[in-house]
Amino acid sequence: MWWHQRNLCFRHPIEDYSSGDLEKEVATIAETDESAGSEGVIDSHKRREILSRRPSYRKILNELSSDVPGVPKIEEEKSGEEGTLPHITTMAVPTSIYQTSTGQYIAIAQGGAIQISNPGSDGVQGLQALTMTNSGAPPPGATIVQYAAQSADGTQQFFVPGSQVVVQDEETELAPSHMAATTGDMPTYQIRAPTTALPQGVMMAASPGSLHSPQQLAEEATRKRELRLMKNREAAKECRRRKKEYVKCLESRVAVLEVQNKKLIEELETLKDICSPKTD
DNA sequence: CACGAAAACCGTCAGCGGTT
DNA sequence: AACCGCTGACGGTTTTCGTG
């Protein structure tokens, strides 16, 4: 049922409301209803073919957005692996570039300088300061990485070279993310050599060396799986976000159509009165 | 306030279509 | 064929809300 409606919506983008072309819109709606009614005629194979072509929410919403002014479009994702990192153009040649779970890019220059850039922001504004300390409390071999989390949830995951992992400190990890955001507490991360079991969401960067032993192969398989799960996790989040946006868009359209329907009914009644005056 | 139901959210898996 | 992204389905967890 859901896909049925979705496909209808996709195949029959309703015209621009701002044009005020009500006749066109009503015709479109009528056409939609008609096609819905004739669906029973389609043989099962064809129907399955149609229903299986599931346009993404981004496509659907962009269709709607192009018709309805004021509805923001979902930007087309640039293929992240295209190699050109946005907003990192004038820095020293980095030795490593990593991407966080929230899409930010972290570049570690040869001098140890670290830059974070947001793909969604413009130019230098996307860069965030990041401080590193190696002295004091941290356990041997650990590097404290602190930065001001920009995202609301404040959770970040890093890729770090040299078979190291980034682990969020327990204090900030356990505290509710919104508290950290509102109190200004900076989440603290440690770069460590991986222990036996990786915490959820923490990935180990693959060293580009060759993998020989069964243990290494198993680790590689595990790493690939973790990477796939992480990507799918993010994809699921994004998919749900689009779906919610899509549903909101539909709801707003329902509200608009109800108002217009009401106006049309009133207009029809007025015309009826004009065309058939009382004979009394 | 305690409790249970409902709603919302999340991670994972499976399957599909598109791309290389 | 392998890989990848998208999304429905499922089950678990968390949050919200109504009731006693």
Automatic annotation (TrEMBL):
Q: Quote the subcellular location field of this record.
A: Nucleus
**Keywords, comma-separated and alphabetical:** Activator, Coiled coil, DNA-binding, Nucleus, Phosphoprotein, Repressor, Transcription, Transcription regulation
Which residues does the UniProt record annotate as the domain BZIP? 222-273
Q: Which PROSITE patterns match?
A: BZIP, BZIP_BASIC, KID
Coiled-coil intervals in this record?
247-274
The cross-references to CDD domains, in alphabetical order and at most eight, read:
bZIP_CREB1 (cd14690)
The segment(s) forming the KID domain are 24-83
Q: What is its main location?
A: nucleus
Q: Where are the transmembrane segments?
A: none
SUPFAM superfamilies per UniProt? Leucine zipper domain
Family membership, please give it: Belongs to the bZIP family.
Under which name does UniProt file this protein? cAMP-responsive element modulator
